Amino acid sequence: MSDALNMVKIAKKALEDKKAQNIKIIDIRQVTVIADYFLIADGANPNQVQAMVDHVEEALGKAGYECRQIEGYGAGGWVLMDYGDIIVHAFSSEDRLFYDLERIWRDGKLLEDGELE
């Protein structure tokens, strides 16, 4: 398993632990060089979004992965976590609908759970 896929699995599990909704993983390797994968998830309110981000950062940190940059944490509407090979987008439900990253990155491949094995 690639390092990037291992990071995806850890981050996905951390998001699930905090009851993130509608978790999507998009393989963007054939679309751009900015990262290999996007993880997109939403929470019910800014506090849940921040808890999701905190838990992802903790889980990936314990596995030896350091976040390069976090943007938007204070507002809690859209938090971007840049881990180099993966980028985690944690949204409030309203902001996720507004920005619609899945549509913007539709040229990427949406991964199913079985593809993370």
Main-sheet strand order equals 3-4-5-2-1-6
CATH class: Alpha Beta
- Structural class by helix and strand composition: alpha+beta
Number of helices: 4
Mean pLDDT, to the nearest integer, reads 93
Quick synopsis:
With about 120 residues, the protein is α+β, with helices and mostly antiparallel strands.
Q: What can you tell me about this protein's structure?
A:
The protein contains 4 helices and 6 strands, in the order H-E-E-H-E-E-E-H-H-E. It has a 6-stranded mixed β-sheet with strand order 3-4-5-2-1-6. With 117 residues, it is of the alpha+beta class. The chain has helices at 3-17, 46-62, 93-99, 101-104, and strands spanning 21-27, 37-43, 69-71, 78-82, 86-92, 109-111. It has a single domain, classed as Beta Polymerase, domain 2 (2-Layer Sandwich). The longest helix is centred in the middle third of the chain and has 17 residues, at 46-62. It is 37% helix and 27% strand.
Protein traits:
117 residues, alpha+beta, Beta Polymerase, domain 2, six-stranded mixed beta sheet, 4 helices, 6 strands, 37% helix, globular
How would the blueprint of this fold be written?
Elements: H1 3-17, E1 21-27, E2 37-43, H2 46-62, E3 69-71, E4 78-82, E5 86-92, H3 93-99, H4 101-104, E6 109-111
Parallel strand pairs: 2-5
Antiparallel strand pairs: 1-2, 1-6, 3-4, 4-5
Helix pairs in contact: 1-2
